[in-house]
Amino acid sequence: MRRFALLLPFLFLFSGLCSVLRAGENTQSPQSGYDPIIIGTGLKTAVYSQMMQTPFKMAPELMVEYNGVTTGGIDNMMALLHRQIDAGLMQADVIEYMKRTEPMITKKIRSLVALHTNNILIFALRGGLSVEKNFLQRQTIYVRNLRDLAGRPVAAFNDNASVTARVINERLGLNMKIYEVTSKEEGFRKLREGNVYAFFVTGGKYIPWVEQEVDANTITLANTNPEDIQKLGQPYSSGKSAYRKFGVPVNVVAVRNELVCWDFTSKKRSEQLLEIRNFLKRNLTTIQETRGSSPSWQEVDQKTIDEVSWQKYQPGR
User: Fold this and answer.
1) Whole-number Cα distances in Å, 189 to 29, 141, 149, 179, 222
2) Is the pTM of this model over 0.70?
3) Are residues 109 and 139 in the same domain?
4) DSSP structure string for 143-177
5) Is 260 inside any structural domain?
6) 83 within a domain of the structure (yes/no)
């Protein structure tokens, strides 16, 4: 009897431990409801990656991870088509351009939400480009307008700008020769050396390095006629450059970025994606007001977030 009395505290302790373990079996952590969903963003220093950091830190239960290994729009789409990621950010014209050669895009890629807008900037030499007119004479070609580039070589920075330049080229029949470059330094070097007449760059409404690094004494921005922008049609719209250093703002082609996903049909995955969409809509103001969030969130509102240009993700339909 005395031995049993000595064992009683240990029995109570063991009983309590078993109760805790049983309770743990029935209590699911907020993150265990969903499998991780991987969003392709591009390089960690780029806008896409910076945009995704703030919202999903606020909602760990959504199990969103973002992949900073891809290089951007086209790479995100290819990773999505090869099922290396579950969703990705890209310009709407990347979807339109790639669907010609990738029929799976029409069948299996859907748009979750629309995000910020990218502007297409066309840099040219302020003093014009001196070219040979004939054996004895030279002439200076000034690029003040997109139309001045008809039949001429141009450079485009990365795959987003390259896609946009190619679509503009086709839809307006400009017959430009487009060379993709992998760095802005290479693009401006080709421009200054006279190898190209213009340098196409895409980015948010305000690109810090444009303000900080581009010499406005030698470089200017070319205008795009509003009627040409209208002629381009969807998914393009009209925008304005935001750089006072270049003087009077010019008209630019604009295109919206979208978060697209695989057309998942399983119940759990569908719920997760719809909850991601609803979370972004419900918490948009909080995301915008969070210290350190990407300035690109300021361009998104409750109306535009639903204005996707591609087929909307609607499971069960």
Assistant:
1) 54, 18, 18, 13, 18
2) yes
3) no
4) --BGGGGTT-EEEEEHHHHHHHHHHHHHHHT---E
5) yes
6) yes
